[in-house]
Write a structure and sequence with these properties.
Elements (H helix, E strand, L loop, with lengths): L28 H7 L20 E3 L5 E7 L5 E7 L8 E2 H19 L5 H9 L6 H11 E7 L2 E7 L1 H4 L3
Parallel strand pairs: 1-5
Antiparallel strand pairs: 2-3, 3-4, 5-6
Length: about 170
């Protein structure tokens, strides 16, 4: 019996490809829709909306990590939770970030004269529509650590130059 040319004796390929061709690794259209998510966590190139990530610690002494919770209505709420699982309830990110940012802006404006370059930068960053990256940078310049949890106000550990005498 003679084999057909290009068959190789195995019969036609099951996936409809030519004989000897490499399998197609490109995802199908339906699979791309399943993989595309709107979460910053799943998209490494997308900036994080969490301003205090890396600075915030739990009262038990471990890092707090971001936590996204999707509500029934489809809206996502942001929290910080203890990484050690100490049992403290997660802290809402919006309230905590607003409180810390307000304290940092107040300290920056009190420290620098109104028309100095640093004072003008702090005022520009304090605007409502300021870029979140600018807010994050201002917080990181002034604060070394934020300790939060137990429904108490956040404890700020200021950077050295923030507490130095003027």
């Amino acid at each position: 019996m003679r084999q057909q040319e290009g068959d190789g004796g195995t019969g036609p390929p099951d996936d409809g490809q030519e004989a000897g061709a490499e399998p197609d690794d490109t995802p199908r259209i339906g699979a791309v829709a399943e993989l595309a998510t709107d979460s910053w966590w799943d998209n490494p190139g997308r900036p994080t909306p969490y301003l205090l990530w890396g600075l915030i610690w739990c009262r038990c002494g471990t890092f707090m990590v971001p936590l996204d919770r999707t509500l029934r209505c489809g809206r996502t709420e942001r929290f910080y939770r203890c990484d050690a699982g100490c049992g403290r309830s997660p802290v809402p990110a919006n309230g905590l970030e607003g409180e810390v940012f307000g304290a940092v802006v107040a300290a920056a404006l009190a420290r620098f004269p109104r028309y100095s370059l640093q004072g003008m930068r702090a005022r520009r960053t304090a605007r409502r529509r300021a870029d979140p990256d600018r807010r994050r940078d201002l917080i990181r310049r002034w604060v070394r650590r934020v300790v939060a949890g137990d429904d108490q106000p956040p404890q700020l550990h200021w950077a050295d130059y923030a507490t130095a005498a003027s």
